[in-house]
Specification:
Low-confidence stretches of chain B: 164-168
Strand content of chain B: 15-25%
Radius of gyration of chain B: 15 Å
Mean pLDDT of chain A: 94
Oligomer: heterodimer
Shape of chain A: globular
Distance between the termini of chain A: 27 Å
Radius of gyration of chain A: 16 Å
Low-confidence stretches of chain A: none
Strand order of the largest sheet of chain A: 1-3-2-4-5
Mean pLDDT of chain B: 90
Helix content of chain A: 40-55%
Number of helices of chain B: 4
Number of helices of chain A: 7
Largest interface: A-B, 26 and 29 residues
Strand content of chain A: 5-15%
Structural class of chain A: alpha+beta
Order of helices and strands of chain B: EEEHEHEHEEEEH
Largest sheet of chain B: 5 strands, mixed
Strand order of the largest sheet of chain B: 5-4-3-8-9
Order of helices and strands of chain A: EEHEHHHHHEEH
Number of strands of chain B: 9
Shape of chain B: globular
Largest sheet of chain A: 5 strands, mixed
């Protein structure tokens, strides 16, 4: 192979990121995802099975990678999650994250601003605040920063996973295979 | 199967080409002289994943253009197919059709998979003189991303002073 470079996560995971699981876990799994991407929604359904097998040995981090030309609502969805994170905290971010993936395929408008505001309310945020942040683009730069960091790390589509900082090009849709890759990193 | 050792390496003058970009228009390598050029060979339009390689490059176009670079996608699909693909993905860069003789240009760049009859996933970054400064062959199932291209463009910028008189 003519691999003249290896895709390595940069920057490292930090306080800037949204994470679930123990900070000192032996494995850090980073996902670059898009809330309107059906493959990411599928990964969202697979991940609980995978993480259960690893039983507390994984810290899961989510970074934004909206592919806006294919997914016109993905940018606002990402910004809405940041708006809720800012007002509610990490719990709010993860509730938004889960709600958006769970409802992604409800219909063609399931991630429009009106629905995002409703999810924000359910996640403990304030609908009006979120709509104001979306209109003002308050978190647009933050999301774009995630996106460009992803590009520079070799993110090549969504979802892209990094296991302990290295891009994982293997199978993620089969829980056993994904779990085996994480086990290997944990040992 | 194209052998990794056959893709044209850095330092090679890029082979010339003239390919259709729309059903009634063609472009050639010479049209891009004077600025960096990214040539991305890929197996085919409408790959079944979202966030595929061409959609990704479309999202990163503004970064490529910061380096004054132009991007060309090349596959063996016809110009009509490219038009439909570009429309469906909102692509804002040219897709060239290496359609007849099939794959001839991909072959010249060492980026043709004869058994499958498609281009390989191969990337080339050319300088303003049409010399290949970086090339990379990705396993065909692995989208190579854009980081290698951006690294190559940065290296190019570091070695080549901006052309005098060019508005930047």
């Amino acid at each position: 192979m003519s691999a003249s470079y290896v895709s390595v996560l940069r920057p490292d995971v930090s306080d800037r990121d949204h994470s679930r699981g123990p900070e000192d876990a032996p494995v850090t799994l980073v996902e670059y995802g898009d809330f309107q991407c059906p493959h990411c929604a599928r990964a969202h359904r697979v991940l609980p099975h995978v993480l259960r097998q690893l039983d507390g040995r994984v810290r899961f981090v989510f970074r934004h990678f909206p592919i806006t030309s294919s997914h016109p609502d993905a940018m606002h969805a990402a910004e809405a999650s940041e708006s809720v994170a800012a007002s509610v905290g990490e719990e709010g971010f993860w509730r938004m994250h889960d709600l958006m993936y769970e409802h992604q395929s409800d219909g063609p408008d399931s991630l429009d601003d009106r629905h995002l505001a409703a999810y924000a309310e359910r996640a403990g945020g304030d609908a009006a605040d979120v709509l104001r942040d979306l209109a003002a683009g308050t978190y647009e730069e933050y999301v774009k920063e995630d996106f460009m960091n992803g590009v520079r790390s070799g993110v090549n589509g969504t979802p892209t996973f990094f296991i302990n900082g290295r891009r994982y090009d293997g199978e993620w849709a089969v829980p056993e295979m994904f779990a085996a890759a994480l086990e290997e990193a944990a040992s | 199967m194209s052998d990794p050792s056959t893709i044209l390496p850095a330092g090679t003058p890029a082979p010339d080409f003239k390919l259709r970009v729309t059903p009634d228009q063609s472009v050639s390598l010479a049209d891009f002289r004077g600025r960096p050029l990214i040539i991305a060979f890929y197996p085919g339009d409408f790959s079944p994943v979202c966030g595929d390689q061409m959609s990704l490059y479309n999202e990163v176009l503004h970064e490529f253009r910061k380096h004054d670079a132009e991007l060309l996608g090349v596959s063996v699909d016809s110009a009509w197919c490219h038009a439909a693909f570009a429309k469906s993905r909102n692509l804002h860069f040219p897709l060239l059709s290496d359609f007849e003789p099939k794959g001839e240009i991909a072959r010249r760049y060492g980026a043709y998979r004869a058994k499958e009859g498609t281009a390989a996933r191969a990337l080339f970054v050319l300088d303003g003189d049409g010399v290949i400064r970086w090339s990379y062959l990705s396993p065909v199932g692995v989208n190579p991303g854009a980081d290698g291209i951006l690294n190559a463009l940065e290296a190019l910028g570091a070695h080549q002073p901006a052309p005098s008189g060019a508005a930047r």
